[in-house]
Amino acid sequence: MFILQQRRSNNLHDLLSISVLRQRQEDLDYVQEYRPLKEDIKHLRVLLYGHVGAGKSSFINSVSNVLRGRMTIPALTSAMTSDRSFTIKYATHKFSKGRGSSKTFYPVVFNDIMGLEDGNNSGIHPDDIKLALKGHVKEGHKFNPAGKLEDGDFGYNPSPSTDDKVHVLACVLSANTPQINASVLQKMKKVRETASELGIPQIGLMTHIDSACGEIEKDLKNVYRSKHLQKKIKDFSSAVGLPLNCIFPIKNYSDEIDMKEDVDTLILSALRKIIDFGDDFIEKC
Ligand SMILES: Nc1nc2c(ncn2[C@@H]2O[C@H](COP(=O)(O)OP(=O)(O)O)[C@@H](O)[C@H]2O)c(=O)[nH]1
Ligand SMILES: [Mg+2]
What tens digit of pLDDT does each residue of 168-225 get? Predict the structure, then answer.
C-alpha cells in the first residue's frame, strides 16, 4: 500500500516537473522572440522600483542568466557594494543576444531606482520618479535626494522619445521581512498611483521567497502551496493596491553556481507578463 502511494506521488511529481519544463520553454521562446510591433520603438522599458536590498539588481542579473541560458557576470548587487551612488545613477540595463559581429540586444531594457528609504531626505525625490516614468531623466543622471530635477538641468531630457518613456512599472518587495514598513508601502503606493495616472501598467515582484519560507527553500515548486507566502502576497496587494494576479513570486539567482529550471520558470513567468503589459501600453503610446 505504502509503495503504491509512494509510486503515485513520484508519478505526480514527475508530471508536475514535465509541465513546469514545458511552460518554462514556452515562456522562454515567447520572451526571446518578442519584438515591439510599433516600428519606431526599439525597446520596451521596465522600471524596477523598490527598497535597497529588495532584489532589483538581482532580478536584472537573473533575467540576464535566463536569456543567456547560463550564469552571466552580475551587475553589482547590494551585498557587493556599499556605494549608494550605484543605484542613484539612472542607468539602462540591456541584455545581449548572440556574440561577436552578430551581437544585438533584446528589445526589453531595465532601469532600477530606489526611493523607498525611511525618512525624508533619503531615497530619490518622488517628483524625479514621475520624471523618469515620463522619460525626462537622461541616461547617467545622478539623482539628488535633497533636490529634484528641473527643466533646464543637464540631466533633464525636455523632449523624450517613446523609447525613453517607461512602459511598465515593477514594484519589487522582499517577502523576507517580518513586517513590511508602512512608510515604504505608502511611498510605493504613491508611485504606483502616479504610474496609473500616466496609464503605465504595473506589476509586483515578491522576491526572497526562498528565505521567507522553509518549504519553498526546500522545493521551489511549493511556491503556490505556501500559506505564509500567500499571506505576504495578499498583504502586498492590499497595501500597495495591486491586484493579486499582478503579483509574481520570484526567487532570484543569488548564491547558485548553476542554472536551475525552477528558478527560471518563475523569472520567465513574470518576465512574460511584464512584456505583455508593456506591449499593450506601447500600442497606445
Ligand atoms: N535568497 C535570496 N537572496 C536574494 C534574492 N534576491 C536578492 N537576493 C540577495 O539580496 C541582496 C540584495 O539584493 P540586490 O539585488 O542587490 O537588491 P537591490 O538593492 O534591490 O538591487 C543580495 O545579496 C542578493 O544576492 C532572492 O530572491 N533570494
Ligand atoms: Mg541594486
Answer: 999 999 999 877 778 888 889 999 999 999 999 999 999 999 999 999 999 999 998 9
Distance CA 169, CA 4 (A): 49
Binding site membership of 57 for ligand 1 (Cβ less than 6 Å): yes
Is 157 a pocket residue for ligand 1 (Cβ < 6 Å)? no
What total number of domains does the chain contain? 1
- Which residue is closest in CA terms to ligand 1's atom 14? 55
CA pair distance 90, 96, nearest whole angstrom: 19
pLDDT (0 to 100) of residue 7:
62
Residues 107, 44 contacting (CB under 8 angstroms): yes
CATH number at residue 240: 3.40.50.300
Average pLDDT over residues 68-88: 67
* Domain span at 68: 2-284
Give, using CA atoms, the residue closest to atom 2 of ligand 1: 208
